[in-house]
Amino acid sequence: MSTFLSSPETLSIPEALARAHAHWEAGQADQAEQYCQRVLAVWPGQTDALHLLGLMAHAYGNLDVAIAHIRQACMAPRVPAVYWSNLAEMYRQKARLSEAEEAARRAVAIDPALAVGWNNLGIVLQEAGKLQESLAGLERVITLRPDWAEAHNNLANTARRLGRMDFAEQHYRQALTLNPNYAEAHCNLAFLLSTQGRYDEAASRAQCAIDINPRMIEAYVNLADVEVCRGRHDAALRTLDMLVVFAPRHPTALLARAKVLRQLDRLDDALAIATEAVSVAPQTADAHYVLALVCQALGRADEALVHFEQAAQLPGTVTEQALIGRAGLLLEDGREPEALIAFDQALKAFPESVPARASRAVIRRFEAGDPDIAALEAAVAQSGYRPLAEQIAAHFALGKAYLDIDDPEQAFRHFEEGNRQKRATFSYDTSLTEQWMERLALALSPARYERLHGAGEPSELPIFIIGMPCSGTALVDRVLRSHPRAARAGELSALRLAIEGAGVFPDWVCALDDAGVQTALRQCGQAYLTRVSPLAQGRAHLIDKAPGNFLYAGLIPLILPGARIVHVRRDPVNTCLACYTELVDGPYPFAYDQTELGLFYRHYERLMAHWRAILPREHLIETDYEAVIGNLEGEARRLIDFLDLPWNDACLSWREQSRGMTRIVNPNQIEQPPRKSPQSRWHAYAPYLGPLLEALEIAAP
């Protein structure tokens, strides 16, 4: 077309466009825009001018304007393929994934050799959860441009989501070989290493990404995730605090903070932040997924189900997690038939899902030849292709399956490997634990306890259920929380956090005089009540079922003089056997080695003997798991009477009721009365429990 531009100078359209590009590349945006507008004044809809205006708008963060310009450019016939590719990327950034996929497919249809087009299509398909298609597209990019570091990084991202961990690591490292200062590849490799339990290297890679690009949000999030895996939640929050400076309302930053706060039981704060993330990015699956987790922790089951379902329906990479989360929520809510259906739905959508198959194993009985056994065996055989958490879960599920079909040798082979893999992810010293528990007892001598008694914050709200994990606390929780005057809170870390807020425990108790300790005790009580009171929802009592609170049992009446404590005991070997054969969720580092587990049980017994000697009878009641399952009504009435509550038949009829929320270690802890002595349950497995029996100083039968 021979159109010319006049005033103030005469230029052809190609010359004007060339000047626009030159000004843009020189950082002179105003001049570049002027030349583009002069072209469009003469030739409305001129594709190259519209495309450049779109690129400029995108660079300045005006994504809607950028999309409008480039979409208009793409309406012309014979438009270059790269324009469609750029439009696809902008749609992706706007989370309009279906439109992004359509644009990207148009690009590669126009030019099948366009590497950037295949790359953008691969990323869109990855985010839409179409991982096999994404992998094929990104492998094509590598074929077209084997020296493109970004393509190796993107291919690794898809491979990681497919569980092909070795393949993913190989391509992350290839990306870094091609570009050692590639911050995104360092960041993504950090995430992969964290899923494999390689936390030190993961932290180093995440920090490297931050050093290269101090504004990379995902690098801070990945570093925070590593700190969470190490159990250093405060360090995780400090890392995320850095994002407040330059990304205070970015959805990724908000969701990372909400997840950490949820793990710290700061549930109101977590809810506010997760809700803000959904308001900022209402069509983002991750936001709904995290909000569902927070609602679940708050006992708001109906709301959690809604957000799990929204997360599963929206395009994104958390569909599998959302479907499994929904099934797990139904299971926690006591709706086992619905949970089984939900797990089946997850497996229909994701037939290779190890988390879905392993989670479902908890509530089904296996038979010889069960196809799930073969599928789980195949999963553990692919150790380099699966995240460590999936490998561990598969081993525990297989252990349960082989126990179901009466093959204890195979069962304990898998239990031992699952426990070994889990134990290798953290440091734990049983002698230091023993010394610390001895110091707990020494810090509160009977004489000092008597002087401090009654100093805390008066409140009859909390009822603490304590004991070893897998000791039957879940069963007692079901009984007590069925009372209409008791609210269920699940396993909270609120007591530990309140005590640690006063300083290192028990050091602060020993360092202060009585007056100072009394002040600290009152502050601890106030801090605890501030955290948990919203969970009571107006009821007279709140059930705090965190077994590990036995460590602080001696402080509870000092912090909260009106609180009651229910200590649940169980046969020592059966308790430890349950810990070892169930993938316990919580701060239980002693549970993954038979010797360490047995020694910890003995430390627990000694500490509880001390607490028993100093705690007033009006604060502590003890019940045996075996007694509860053998005489449910008798023990239930004894417990309700201790709590000064009127009897209510709901405490016995909970099996038939629509059950409410609780976070329990394993629903199978709630058993029917046994047909033989529960103490003898472990006898059949004695040949596989040698280190445990030796540590417990119990002879094999």
UniProtKB/TrEMBL annotation:
An example molecular function term from Gene Ontology annotations: protein O-acetylglucosaminyltransferase activity
Protein name from the UniProt record: Bacterial transcriptional activator domain-containing protein
Record-annotated membrane-spanning stretches: none
Stored SUPFAM superfamilies: P-loop containing nucleoside triphosphate hydrolases, TPR-like
Superkingdom of the source species: Bacteria
Organism lineage string: Bacteria, Pseudomonadati, Pseudomonadota, Betaproteobacteria, Burkholderiales
Matching InterPro entries: OGT, P-loop_NTPase, TPR-4, TPR-like_helical_dom_sf, TPR_rpt
Organism field: Pandoraea thiooxydans
BP term (GO), one: protein O-linked glycosylation
Keywords noted in UniProt: TPR repeat
Classification via Pfam families: Sulfotransfer_3, TPR_12, TPR_16, TPR_19, TPR_4, TPR_8
TPR repeats: from-to residues: 81-114, 115-148, 149-182, 183-216
